[in-house]
C-alpha cells in the first residue's frame, strides 16, 4: 500500500464527534500498551501519527486516522490498565459498545494481543465481543521480535486456545520494530476493503 497521506481526523469521546460514515474503516482493539499506536504508525510509515506512549491507559478516546483520503484506521481506547478508576472502566465499555454498535462503515476490528503473554480475561471478552458484533475476529500478535523463532508456535498456539479462535481465524505475528507482518496486514486490509 502506497501511503500518500495520513492524518488524524479527531480524538472522539462521543459519537457526535465521530467523522462522517462516508469512507470504510478498520479499528484496532487491545490492552493498553499492547502496541496499537505503534502498529498504526508502522502501517502508515509515520513515526508519530498515533502517539505511542510509555505510560499506558491515559487516552480514553477513539482516534480516527484518515489514510490517502480513502479510509480510516481507528485506534480504540486500551483496556486492562490497573490504575484506571472503575468509573473510567465503565466509561470505556460504553464507549466501545456504542462505537461497535452504531458504526455503519466499520468493516473489521483487529484484536491485538502481546505474543509473549497468555491473553487476559478482558482480551477474551473483547474477542467474543468482536465476534458477537459480526466481525471475523482477526488477531494480531504484537511484539513478535521479543521472542525467538523457536518459541513462536507455542505462543501462537496458546493465544489461539485461550481466545477459542476458530481454525480459519487469522492470527498474524507482527512487529513494529522489525516491520514483520506489515505487508501481510496490508493484504488483509486490502481484501477487507474490496468486499
Ligand atoms: P498502545 O498503548 O497499544 O498504543 O501501545 P504503544 O504502541 O504505545 O506501545 C507500547 C510500548 O510497546 C511502547 O514502548 C512501544 O515502543 C513498545 N512496542 C510496541 N510495539 C512493539 C514491537 O513490535 N516490538 C517491541 N520490541 N516493542 C514494541
Automatic annotation (TrEMBL):
The family annotation for this protein states: Belongs to the TRAFAC class TrmE-Era-EngA-EngB-Septin-like GTPase superfamily. EngB GTPase family.
Cellular-component GO terms for this entry: cytosol
Give the lineage: Bacteria, Bacillati, Bacillota, Clostridia, Peptostreptococcales
Q: List GO BP terms, alphabetically.
A: division septum assembly
Give start and end of each EngB-type G domain: 22-195
Q: Main role? A: Necessary for normal cell division and for the maintenance of normal septation.
Q: What is this protein called?
A: Probable GTP-binding protein EngB
Give the NCBIfam families listed for this entry. Answer: GTPase_YsxC (TIGR03598), small_GTP (TIGR00231)
Q: Which cofactor does it need?
A: Mg(2+)
Q: Which domain of life is it from?
A: Bacteria
What is a GO molecular function of this protein? GTP binding
Q: Which UniProt keywords apply?
A: Cell cycle, Cell division, GTP-binding, Magnesium, Metal-binding, Nucleotide-binding, Septation
Q: Which organism is it from?
A: Thermotalea metallivorans
Amino acid at each position: 500500500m502506497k501511503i500518500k497521506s495520513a492524518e488524524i481526523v479527531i480524538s472522539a469521546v462521543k459519537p457526535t464527534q465521530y467523522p462522517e460514515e462516508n469512507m470504510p474503516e478498520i479499528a484496532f482493539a487491545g490492552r493498553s500498551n499492547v502496541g496499537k499506536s505503534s502498529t498504526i504508525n508502522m502501517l502508515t510509515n509515520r513515526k508519530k501519527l498515533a502517539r505511542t506512549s510509555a505510560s499506558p491507559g491515559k487516552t480514553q478516546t477513539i482516534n480516527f486516522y484518515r489514510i490517502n483520503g480513502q479510509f480510516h484506521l481507528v485506534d480504540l481506547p486500551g483496556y486492562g490498565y490497573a490504575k484506571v478508576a472503575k468509573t473510567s472502566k465503565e466509561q470505556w465499555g460504553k464507549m466501545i459498545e456504542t462505537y461497535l454498535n452504531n458504526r455503519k462503515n466499520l468493516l473489521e476490528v483487529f484484536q491485538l494481543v502481546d505474543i509473549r503473554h497468555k491473553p487476559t480475561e478482558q482480551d477474551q471478552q473483547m474477542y467474543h465481543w468482536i465476534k458477537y458484533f459480526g466481525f471475523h475476529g482477526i488477531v494480531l500478535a504484537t511484539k513478535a521480535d521479543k521472542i525467538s523463532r523457536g518459541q513462536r508456535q507455542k505462543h501462537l498456539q496458546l493465544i489461539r486456545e485461550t481466545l477459542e479462535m476458530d481454525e480459519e481465524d487469522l492470527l498474524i505475528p507482527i512487529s513494529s520494530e522489525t516491520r514483520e507482518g506489515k505487508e501481510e496486514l496490508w493484504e488483509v486490509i486490502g481484501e477487507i476493503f474490496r468486499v
